[in-house]
Amino acid sequence: MAKMAASVVEHGQDAFKNLFKYYKRRNPPPDFSNVIDFSKGVSTDKVYPAKLNFAAFSERDARMVGLRPVQAWRAFGLEGYPGFIFISNPFLPDSQQYWVKQCLKVYPQKPNVCNLDMHMPAAETADIWERSAELIRKKNGGKSEPRTLLERLRWVTLGYHYNWDTKTYSAEHHSSFPADLSRMSQHVAAACGFPAFSAEAGILNYYRSDSSLGIHVDESELDHTMPLLSFSFGQSAVFLLGGAKREDPATAMFTHSGDIMVMSGASRLLYHAVPRILAPPTVAPTSPGLFKQSHRLQQDISEDSLVHNIEEGDWEVCEHYLRTSRLNVTVRQVLGPGQAFPSQTLNKVTLSSSRGSYHQDESTEDVNIKTKKMRNNTDCSTES
Ligand SMILES: O=C(O)CCC(=O)C(=O)O
Ligand SMILES: [Fe+2]
User: Fold this and answer.
1) 77: CA distance to ligand 2 center in Å?
2) What does the pLDDT look like over 336-376, one tens digit per residue?
3) Which positions ≥6 away from 160 have C-beta within 8 Å?
4) Is there a contact between 321 and 128 (Cβ–Cβ < 8 Å)?
5) Backbone CA torsion sign across 141, 144, 145, 151
6) C-alpha separations of 177 from 107, 110, 161, 198 in Å
7) Ligand index nearest the alpha carbon of residue 360
8) What is the pTM of this model?
9) Closest Cα to atom 1, ligand 1: which residue?
10) Domain of life here (predicted)?
11) How high is the pLDDT of residue 307?
12) Ligand whose nearest atom lies closest to the CA of 269
């Protein structure tokens, strides 16, 4: 294992699994020097500039969702992964804070679904933010302080709610997809050549400093011609991108706050994983620019802008939470144009194949048996 850093692309049946374990390891810590860092631009011969559609939407439309004009984005491709596009933080200064606040305060609200619903009465998960905000503000970092509901949040689903047991989506289990996130996703997809993309399902992952996400492929969507979009906020992480088979070797890259990954075309169904969050005390690149003194949006905000300044008190909670956490939002189109869900029986038989319950580790403290059972199916995500 010690040799891993010298040759990141290990071959052999357990290549991906070994790489996952290597970057997850705490003691001794891994060597991060071979992890691709797109914030440094074309830093290796595996990285090349990606072509975007500059005319996909106007500068004003971009600003309305907190994005820079497409011409200003730094987008990259990765040798050997056609259809994979990495956009290095295209957000306007400070506008990430709006999206962070949405992920922590707004999207966990009902009727959206979260991990806490699996083992708590609905009345208790109806107001996660309200029950947590004051307590988080008062925290002073002591280890014995009980964790708030917000700190126990692991995932939230939006739109067509992903069913972790059957690994399917269904027409019956659906709530309206947030308009702001839908608009932002459409813009990103259009810039990457998918103007018809429609945001229909979202999975939000809430990572603490010791969380990881096991090796998996996102194939439950019925339409794979549309891209999968992934937005990261907060602490940086190591992301592993593998091949079409679980055993294929993987490439390690950092994701920093504000980064967007687009998995499309031949890369839409590649295996991937998040072995490590780089929250303190790990000595590794941090996410610059997120924890500025001022959280006021620097650009003029027009009245119809979706992204607006957030209240000081709200940001205080978000900032506290993000000191040791990472948020990831994946946005998916589930159905192709004119496509409908097959009947339920057919749906189960044809789709429950290999996605697996890959989602993150949860400390035993807040796992009930049902959730734990689900997670026991995971590959690497339950290993420590
Ligand atoms: O957290 C990430 O970067 C990846 C999330 C992911 O792969 C998923 O939700 O399917
Ligand atoms: Fe995924």
Assistant:
1) 18
2) 999 999 876 544 443 333 334 555 544 433 333 233 333 33
3) 169, 170, 171, 173, 174, 200, 201, 334
4) no
5) positive
6) 10, 12, 10, 10
7) 1
8) 0.88
9) 328
10) Eukaryota
11) 81
12) 2
The amino acid sitting at 35 is V
**Which pLDDT does position 358 carry in this prediction?**
59
In the chain, where the domains are located:
12-382
Question: Is 216 a known ligand-binding residue?
Answer: yes
Distance 300 CA to ligand 1 centre (A): 33
Residue 314 reports pLDDT greater than 90 = yes
Strand ordering across the sheet containing 228-234: 47-49, 74-78, 84-88, 260-263, 228-234, 326-332, 201-207, 155-159, 113-114
| Class (C level, CATH) for 12-382 | mainly beta
Contact 233, 96 (CB under 8 A): yes
Q: Which of ligand 1's atoms lies nearest the C-alpha of 326?
A: 1
| Candidate of 274, 325, 358 to mutate for ligand 1, largest count of ligand atoms within 8 Å of Cβ | 274
Q: Which pLDDT score, from 0 to 100, does residue 343 have?
A: 79
Q: Is the separation of the CB atoms in 194 and 188 below 8 Å? A: no
239 Cβ closer than 6 Å to some ligand 1 atom = yes
